[in-house]
Design brief:
The complex is a heterotrimer of chains A (478), B (309) and C (275). Chain B is mostly helical and 309 residues long. Chain B is built from 14 helices and no strands. Helix content of chain B is 70%, strand content 0%. Chain C has 2 domains: 52 residues, no CATH class; 210 residues, MetI-like (MetI-like fold), CATH 1.10.3720.10. Classes of the chains: A alpha+beta (478), B mainly alpha (309), C mainly alpha (275). Chains in contact: A-B, A-C, B-C. The interface between B and C is large, with 104 and 107 residues.
Chain lengths: 478, 309, 275
């Protein structure tokens, strides 16, 4: 498994670094051995990191390039990336870029477009990537900014034993509407299964990101768009937040919270997901990594969840009045424009996002198998992987319906808007605001922010950002 | 070093020159620290002042995009729950400081009692203060966990009321739960400093007062507190300022929620500067805070530090 | 039972409560690092289990991300203290010994610096550090830490110097000692406990600071508080790794305070000489 020579070199390098630091003035920056081929990789601490760190030895053995891998929390990563980018002194050759940051980073020339490197590369096999994923996560204004290392959709997880106990059946996808979803949850709420009294569902209530991630899925599925026209057509960022569709969606989210554990108001991603794994939740929808994360009792502990074998997976409910839109998220790898080892960086990105690299990550069995967030369609048909991750066909179907640019639009001031949105959504759950009041306040604040940032009216050139445009871009790379 | 340079000539020079040097000496001793601090602080302040009048959002552009007058100040006050955050910040700063100093004083009296093992306990007591606030945040997040946390379990076991949303999820308890972590971390520090102060109160005076029939409360108010007012004022000022700037605990524990029930000025500033990267807006907020801080210091100067500094 | 014994028992009970409240949580965190992960959130608490040292192995040996960060923290905090004292000691001494115009305002000025929000300074600092090519260096962190350390140290040290009787220095001067001799042979030895305490608290302030390294450090120079943040992922918290890294983050300041504990009391009790 772990490549020994690789480990030793890394450790030796570190010792050398320490020795240099000690020998030189103690305040000086430690020197790196220059002669070796190195790629420094800075990633967010999502599940893929735990798989990736176990397989970098394979990459090192194949290429002779030493990987220096560092992981950071979301906020710390963003602070580091922005600061090092402004400084034009990147402290890594490969960085994970959230899809929300892609446009900003590429427009500011903080990361380089990958087009040129991709074009000349025969072993890339770009056609194998799921186009919806590349569209949602990786392209900006007709360029490839990044490639996906972990691709998430959203789907439903439910307790089969609870359904059986309440004599419920999962409807077929065509009749699985949000109303049916809410109805099932109401029937699950309060049931006693395996000696535990169930809550119907669990929501993520913590602001700003977790509640926005979960709520916008529901809202988009019920026909809510953030802006009048984006990402397709001629961009117009007039907020379309205060609409009947959004009020209906938020009213439903409020109901879902009432059927959740009350402390869910402060739950972030994993607290919501792990609560389900602990066995007192009937059904919920969440990012697809929780398909495997909920099989465990805790995060990266390797202990099976007490209800792991009772977890069923289903497609996301839809709203008959609107076309289904599924959230796409995840993490992608990009190269900072001023990275010192750009060739090594490309080698690494290519390897880590390749079918081979992704499969190696999926096969890591350190805490149980904890990675199935493939960006490559071929892996979803892989028999070995289907045995380990039986829900793969469903996950692929979810990703094929995804549009990350609608659910959480990568507008230039997205994080600011997300902060406002998250706060006001959270206020509704806290009971100090009604859906219509909260959304009207959100809409006004959006308006202020967008006008204050000269995005309303939008004066820069638009880019008609469609899935077809991405497909054409993919074809042009061949 | 400046002191040495002065001292070498001290005896041989005529008195008038010595007097001049004697006047210059404090300046020479103080100047390095002033120069260092000014260099470190002046730039950020000038930078913030200039940019507080500019539109500059790093998400939009790597450079300032033009002068917008007081727009950022208006936005800072209107947009980000400024008044609410200010109220929370002042509340926890005042209440937290009062609790930490009062509790610290009580503990200091206990530490002054001669008991077996007291020396060891005194050495241990400072431990919470030596932990990074971020780590304290993790510790309390772990202990506050609504389902499997130690603190809710203790509260439930004692049959005391517990909000359904958990201590961090209820809008009436969230801010206080955050403050409790700070109180846990810093009360020992206050206690140790005040204990050190207590040791300087001569036993004879206390005994004499007791013989004269003074009760414990009178002794505390009339003798102890006046005699240790220096360390008390120092500790109170330090804590007031540090709680005023509290943001790491908010970040790890509640992110300002539920709603905006636990937002503080520093957390808003963090959000504007390091999440939204709106340099103009965060610069305006910085200056609003600088102005508030100066008012607070002026108040301190008038009341608490009248005869101390 | 006599009243004295009852009182003693109450006092012991109070002391015990004090220890449970303030030291208990730390032990609880230590247990988190070594307990089987599935018992972390079990209530009533699981107190008996086979300790697992796996989390320490992961954080400090293989992959051992935090080992380097521990080392960085030591350099940054140590460097910051070394830089701090030469600036603070003369200033505190001068303010304590000499009367001059603006003395009070100066003390308030230092105080005001303590009150400036560190978060507000992060972006400007980082832009300057960039301009002079210091981002990602220890020196940048050591320097900016002075904005909070020097004011704190000056305030603390001044109170120590206040408590050293000026008469001692004056009588030595009458005996013909030069100022630097007086300083080295009288003031400094008397002030040593105060200096040690100041250095200890300054070390703790620097050690615990997470804001500055957030933007000023890089992969090579990140400090341990930043490292603990890494386990706070969006998909999950590896609680026992946080526990392990946190325990390691607590240990150096704790060791210093346990070993040098007597100075804390001695250093802060200079007033008793006067009494």
């Amino acid at each position: 498994m772990a490549d020994h020579s690789g480990t030793v070199t890394r450790r030796t390098a570190m010792k050398a670094g320490l020795a240099t630091a000690l020998a030189a003035a103690p305040l000086a920056r430690p020197a790196i051995a220059a002669s070796k081929k190195v790629v420094r990789v800075l990633v967010v601490a999502d599940p893929f990191y735990y798989a990736l760190r176990e397989v970098t030895g394979q990459f090192e053995a194949e290429t002779g390039i030493t990987v220096e891998l560092e992981n950071l929390a979301y906020d710390a990563l963003q602070a580091r990336l922005v600061s090092s980018s402004i400084a034009r002194k990147p402290d890594a050759d490969v960085v994970t870029v959230d899809q929300m940051w892609t446009g900003q980073y590429l427009d500011s020339n903080w990361i380089m477009p990958l087009d040129a490197m991709m074009k000349g590369d025969k072993d890339l096999d770009l056609a194998d990537f799921i186009p919806e994923v590349l569209y949602s996560l990786n392209t900006w204004r007709g360029h490839f900014a990044t490639l996906p290392i972990a691709s998430y959709g959203q789907g439903v997880m439910y307790r089969k034993d609870a359904f059986a106990a309440q004599k419920l059946t999962m409807p077929d996808p065509a009749s699985f509407t949000w109303d049916a979803y809410l109805d099932l949850i109401k029937k699950l709420d309060g049931a006693t299964v395996g000696g535990k009294k169930l809550f119907g569902t669990v929501v993520a209530g913590s602001q700003p990101q977790p509640i926005v991630h979960m709520y916008t899925q529901l809202a988009a599925s019920m026909g809510v768009h953030w802006f009048k026209e984006f990402p397709e057509g001629k961009w117009d960022f007039t907020p379309t937040i205060n609409t009947p569709e959004n009020v209906a969606a938020l009213t439903m989210y409020e109901q879902l919270y009432k059927l959740s554990p009350p402390e869910a108001i402060n739950f972030n991603w994993f607290e919501a997901g792990m609560r389900f794994a602990h066995g007192d939740i009937g059904m919920f929808y969440w990012w697809t990594p929780y398909f495997y994360l909920t099989q465990r009792d805790g995060y990266m502990t390797g202990k099976p969840s007490p209800v792991g074998d009772q977890i069923g997976f289903a497609t996301l409910p839809h709203d008959p009045k609107h076309p289904q839109v599924i959230s796409a998220g995840g993490w992608s790898l990009g190269i900072p424009s001023y990275a010192p080892n750009q060739d090594n960086a490309w080698q690494f990105i290519k390897w880590a996002t390749s079918a081979k690299g992704q499969k190696a990550m999926a096969l890591v069995d350190k805490f149980g198998h904890q990675f199935s967030d493939f960006g490559r369609a071929s892996l979803y048909d892989d028999a070995d992987l289907q045995k380990l991750y039986p829900y793969l066909p469903l996950q692929l179907a979810l990703l094929k319906q995804s549009n990350g640019k609608i659910v959480r639009p990568p507008a230039p001031v997205y994080t600011t808007l997300e902060g406002i949105y998250g706060l006001n959504l959270n206020r509704v759950l806290a009971g100090n605001s009604s859906p219509s009041v909260a959304l009207s306040a959100t809409s006004d604040l959006f308006d202020n922010v967008l006008k204050g940032n000269y995005l309303l009216p939008y004066q820069l050139p638009s880019y008609d950002d469609t899935l077809d445009a991405t497909k054409k871009l993919i074809a042009s790379m061949a | 070093m400046a002191a040495v340079a002065y001292a070498d000539g001290a005896r041989t020079t005529p008195p008038s020159r010595e007097k001049r040097r004697r006047q210059r000496l404090p300046l020479i001793l103080i100047a390095p620290s002033i120069i260092l601090l000014t260099a470190l602080v002046a730039f950020p302040l000038v930078f913030s002042l200039r940019n507080s009048f500019c539109f500059w959002n790093l998400q939009m552009s790597p450079k300032p995009l033009g002068f917008i007058g007081l727009g950022n100040y208006r936005a800072a006050i209107e947009q980000s729950d400024f008044v609410e955050a200010l109220r929370h910040t002042l509340t926890i700063a005042v209440v937290g400081t009062a609790i930490e100093v009062a509790l610290g004083l009580a503990i200091a009296h206990l530490l002054a009692v001669r008991l077996v093992g007291m020396n060891f306990c005194r050495a241990l007591l400072i431990m919470p203060t030596t932990i990074a606030p971020i780590v304290t945040g993790f510790l309390f997040r772990y202990m506050y966990d609504a389902q499997g946390g130690l603190i809710p379990w203790l509260i439930r076991t004692a049959h005391l009321p517990l909000p359904a949303q958990g201590l961090l999820g209820n809008e009436h308890t969230a801010l206080w739960a955050v403050l409790a972590a700070d109180i846990w971390q810093w009360t020992p520090f206050c206690a140790i400093v005040l204990f050190a102060g207590l040791l300087s109160v001569p036993d004879e005076i206390v005994e004499a007062a007791r013989i004269d029939g003074a009760g414990g409360w009178t002794i505390l108010r009339r003798i102890t507190i006046p005699m240790i007012r220096k360390p008390m004022a120092f500790v109170a000022a330090l804590r007031l300022m540090q709680i005023f700037n509290l943001f790491d605990l908010v970040l790890v524990l509640t992110r300002g929620g539920p709603g905006s029930a636990s937002r503080t000025l520093s957390y808003n500033l963090y959000q504007q500067g390091l999440v939204d990267f709106n340099i103009g807006l965060s610069s305006a907020s910085t200056w609003l805070i600088v102005i508030i801080v100066n008012v607070l210091i002026a108040l301190f100067a008038v009341f608490a530090f009248k005869d101390i500094v | 039972m006599s009243r004295g014994i009852v009182l003693k028992l109450w006092l012991y009970a109070a002391l015990l409560l004090l220890m449970v409240v303030f030291i208990g949580p730390i032990l609880w965190f230590f247990l988190l690092a070594i307990r089987p992960p599935e018992t972390a959130f079990q209530m009533p608490p699981v107190l008996f289990f086979r300790p697992e040292w796996n989390a320490f192995y992961e954080t400090f040996v293989n992959p051992g991300t935090n080992a380097r960060q521990l080392f960085n923290s030591l350099i940054v905090a140590g460097g910051a203290v070394l830089l701090n004292l030469p600036f603070s000691i003369p200033a505190a001494y001068a303010i304590s010994r000499f009367t001059f115009r603006g003395r009070k305002n100066l003390m308030l000025w230092y105080l005001g610096l303590l009150m400036a929000p560190p978060v507000a300074f992060l972006i400007p600092y980082f832009l300057v550090a960039t301009a002079v090519g210091l981002t990602g260096t220890y020196l940048a962190m050591v320097l900016v830490l002075q904005t909070i350390m020097v004011p704190f140290s000056v305030w603390l040290l001044k109170s120590f110097f206040d408590d050293i009787p000026a008469d001692l220095e004056a009588s030595a001067a009458l005996d013909g000692a030069r100022l630097h001799e007086i300083w080295w042979h009288i003031t400094l030895p008397l002030a040593t406990p105060g200096l040690i305490v100041t250095a200890m608290f300054a070390f703790v302030f620097a050690w615990n600071n997470a804001a500055f390294p957030l933007v000023l450090s890089d992969q090579d120079t990140a400090t341990l508080p930043i490292g603990t943040l890494g386990y706070f992922g969006s998909a999950g918290i590896t609680w026992n790794n946080i526990g392990a890294a946190a325990v390691a983050a607590m240990l150096p300041p704790m060791l210093i305070f346990l070993v040098m504990g007597r100075y804390v009391v001695r250093g802060l009790t200079f007033g008793s000489i006067k009494g």
